[in-house]
Design a protein that fits this description.
The protein has about 450 residues and is mainly alpha-helical. The protein contains 19 helices and two strands. It is about 80% helix and about 0% strand. The N and C termini lie far apart (about 65 Å).
């Protein structure tokens, strides 16, 4: 009997030892190897990549994001170029405010065409092909402009550039808006890159505006655009958005049960009220932003007696824009993005009043920079709000339409400014900006504040 009990205890001890041994072995296999099951039910061991894959995906996601930041940097570079070059363009082509404003008209046409094309082509071509196509449009535009062709060809290039800018802006914003990790911060940084480009370009454009070969500024832009095209095709490889997101470690959710599979995303976007409210808001916002950057130099020269270096004031505005998109992120979170936009708009209107009524060159220059800082967060805030209130299955198309249609404001409002200035003088710039900011604030009131997005 004792022998029997001894045997039982021994067997139990051996079983316990065996279990512990198996546990240690399983732990070793987890750390060192990975079991992969194939269709023939045979197990095989491979070198694990448990810790390697997420790290590689994280790095690749950062490369994707930085590539999109470069694309937005080039967009800002393009918009920041116009203001310092306008006086030289008027001189070279012997044209007034109304005719030079055709630059903005042709750009507006290009942006609207690009926005509509993006909405239609997103499902057909996909993210990678469409954003690369947009970059090629910019390359073509700069090739035309760098030779200072006759004015009709020169302004036609702005239409081609507008199409390319709308496609890239739409796809870049749609991509970042779908990210799960810190999308608000990344959207702010993405548009800070735009501001950085718009801040840098007036320094170069102001120098070229004083040279005989002024149009060679567009050779610099051409080199940057070619580099942008190479980056886009190397990093994204013409793949769809979901494929690119997966390569960066993003989890792609299954389509929602509420998705209307019988209706095209094109129609779903166009029948969503919030999309159009945000799109019109962005149109006015971008118009205000580019109008200040494009016409403030002319205003300072004519109304405040500024010299040839007044182009640097445009850099001050876009520098403030860049700083605001990063520096004000904590305040945006603390107050709430929907509410804080009203505060920024009211402060910007107050500063525009000082620029209008206080004839101080230095004071105006400082005020312009602070206005840029206050306006800076508004675009990423609007895009973040769109990502909260719109369903994911129409988010890319919606943000594409919002971004593309909104970019038309960068042409429409500056043209209106030029047309009014032709009749009333450039002094009309400030009352026009104040009225547009007031309309912008009123529109934002109707944008949904509470997230209603369904995954």
């Amino acid at each position: 009997m004792e022998l029997q009990n001894l045997d039982c205890r021994k067997g139990s001890l051996e079983s316990s030892t065996s279990i512990r041994s198996l546990g240690r072995r399983a732990e070793t296999l987890t750390n060192k190897k990975q079991v992969v099951h194939d269709h023939s039910n045979n197990d095989r061991t491979v070198t694990p990549i448990i810790s390697e894959v997420p790290r590689k995906q994280k790095i690749f996601a950062q490369v994707q994001f930085l590539t999109l930041c470069w694309t937005l940097f080039l967009a800002g570079w393009n918009d920041g170029t116009t203001g310092p070059l306008i006086p030289r363009i008027q001189e070279v082509y012997n044209i007034g405010f109304a005719i030079v404003s055709l630059i903005f008209v042709f750009g507006c046409v290009g942006f609207i065409v690009g926005a509509l094309a993006n909405l239609y082509l997103t499902d057909k071509l996909g993210f990678g092909k469409l954003i690369f196509l947009g970059s090629l449009c910019q390359v073509v535009a700069y090739i035309i402009q760098c030779s200072a062709p006759p004015f009709p060809a020169f302004v036609l290039a702005y239409s081609i550039n507008g199409i390319g800018g709308a496609l890239q802006d739409a796809q870049a914003n749609g991509f970042v808006a779908t990210l799960k990790s810190n999308p608000e911060t990344k959207m702010g940084i993405l548009h800070a890159a735009y501001g950085l480009g718009a801040f840098a370009s007036p320094f170069i454009a102001t120098q070229f505006a004083q040279l005989p070969r002024w149009s060679f500024h567009f050779l610099v832009s051409l080199g940057m655009a070619v580099f942008n095209s190479i980056l886009l095709i190397v990093v994204f490889k013409l793949k769809s958005q979901d494929e690119c997101l997966s390569l960066g470690g993003e989890v792609i959710p299954e389509p929602s049960a509420e998705q209307d599979v019988t209706t095209s995303s094109f129609r779903q976007v166009l029948r969503t009220k919030a999309v159009h409210l945000i799109a019109i808001f962005i149109l006015i916002y971008v118009g205000v932003e580019v109008t200040i950057g494009g016409w403030i130099v002319t205003f300072i020269i004519h109304e405040r007696g500024g010299g040839p270096s007044s182009g640097y004031i445009s850099s001050g505005f876009f520098g403030g824009l860049t700083v605001g998109r990063v520096l004000l992120l904590p305040l945006n979170r603390k107050i709430g993005e929907w509410r804080v936009l009203f505060l920024y708009t009211l402060l910007a209107i107050g500063l525009e009043l000082t620029i209008w009524f206080v004839p101080s060159l230095i004071g105006n220059a400082v005020a312009v920079s602070i206005v840029g800082m206050l306006l800076g967060p508004m675009y990423p805030i609007a895009m973040n709000q769109a990502s909260r209130v719109l369903p994911r299955w129409i988010l890319t198309g919606s943000i594409g339409w919002i971004g593309g249609f909104g970019q038309a404001g960068s042409a429409l409002l500056p043209f209106i400014t030029g047309a009014i200035s032709s009749a009333r003088g450039i002094v009309s710039l400030q009352p026009l900006l104040i009225s547009m900011m007031t309309i912008m604030m009123a529109l934002w009131w109707f944008v949904p504040a509470v997230p209603r997005r369904v995954e």
